[in-house]
Amino acid sequence: MPDTKARSRRTFLGSTAAAAIAVAGGAPLLSACSGSSGGDRAEGATTGKKLQGILPAFVGSDVVKPDLPSKNGSAIGFTTAPPASELAVSVPEKLGKGSTLTIMAPLWGTSPKDGNPYWTAMDESIGVKVNWQNQDGNTYGQKLGAVLASSSVPDVVVIPGWELGGKIPSAVNNKFADLGPYLSGDKVKDYPNLAAIPTGAWQRAVFGGKLRGLPMPTSDIPNIAPFYRSDLFTAKGYRPPTTTQEFFDLAKEITSARNRVWGCGDMTWAAFKFFGVLDEKPTCWRLVGDKLVHRVETDEYLEALEWSRSLYSAGLVHPDAKAETGDLGNLFTAGRVWMYNADISDWYGKTVVQRGDSPGFSMAAMDYFHHDGGKPRLYAGSPSNIWAFVNKNADERTIRDVLAVANFTAAPYGTKEQRLKAYGVEGIHHTVKGNEITKTEVGNNEVFATYEYVASPQQFFAYPNHPDVAEGMVRWQQRMGAFVTKPLFYGMQVQEPNRWADLNSQFEDLEKDIVRGRKKVGDMQQAVSDWRSRGGDRLRDWYRKLLDETGGQAS
Length: 555
Prior knowledge:
This protein is α/β, with parallel strands linked by helices. The chain is built from 21 helices and 19 strands. It has a five-stranded mixed beta sheet. It has a four-stranded mixed beta sheet with strand order 9-12-8-13, sandwiched between helices.
């Protein structure tokens, strides 16, 4: 799974002519919020009775029992790998009716050739032929903009949340089908694996008053983790810090520019958690008295930037981070950086690569803390942040076959369907020896996380080759989950008015400039003042109306 926070938060379609073309001819944009009464509107959020009439029924899966159950909203975990003969079956009969589908999805790697054994096996098992239109994940927004602006939209298009800005939500409303007639309420029971997807993930898949997306669920726990080299810490007798001052002091002790070792990489993402900063839209608002306050207006936001800046000023951050070159993760595994922040998926990704040559390699995520050493103030993230959408011109057979693919790809761990999706064909793409599953060279070149994006089960971590990593990730989430609260507008798919689509675009680059010393904290204060006058105050009023109508959370 890609690092969903490592991509730029600015979106390609936010201010381009392509966006205007993409939504041309669609429904007119309305300034009012849809509120609890719902309505097929391009702005606002769908909540209340309208939402309840749209959402699929939830029927939990008991096909496989996890080794590590969920706690405090964490993912579930698995530390063992059943042999093929013991795998459960979650799709007892082939649901596909033989359609040929085109699916456009991001890919971080080289797409395999058509007709490869992995795709062939998946096609045969599902009963649907998929022609993949994989695009470079690093430039996916550009391709997405061009596709949504054209008249030639694939049968299925995957859209990650980090590309969901500007006018893209309006394009989603106008370009993609309503799946409610096939999935709302008890209708989803025709697809048991889809019925087991948590309700919150489906709620985020409601766009413009319609169930348009097939979700990839996540947990409420922040996906960004502050990592440290636990093997190097142990060798030196270091303990993970419990305050930002301890972090600074430890980074200073570790840093030796002469030996080409630095205490940390850029820590801004973690700093936002250390200082209790709200997340991004729509959960970027806090009610203070009777007034909504945006994250960029809070003292903790400025304090987080100032502390991140202090690490740079003291020379404790690797120079590549300041230059915004290189790969901090690779510097971390090479021992040039001892602490950095990244998506929690890096824990496994880095470990599996390094332990091949260095069996003693270990890393871990330090627990979040409040900057002064108190309990952390963490906010629940989005229940889903990647969705697959079906072309609005698709006929019923095509939609049913897309749902057949989604039901297969949403199979839980420990099933034949998930084993094939994640590891390919045994003997060709992977081998199983005892408790270990090992991908072959062919498997590494052909089995990529593309089917994952069509639909996925409840979040889980399953690493039988490295059970300590799976357990470490689940336990960390369980501990952090105890401190997670739900912010205003949690779980809502809020579509802001297009006239304010670019309002927040300035802050990302300015944050980078401030922490790297190219701008001053005072420049952010001026930018916030400008933001208010350019529309921030009016956006605040718009959100306040939405808050009054919905209560801040879907009911």
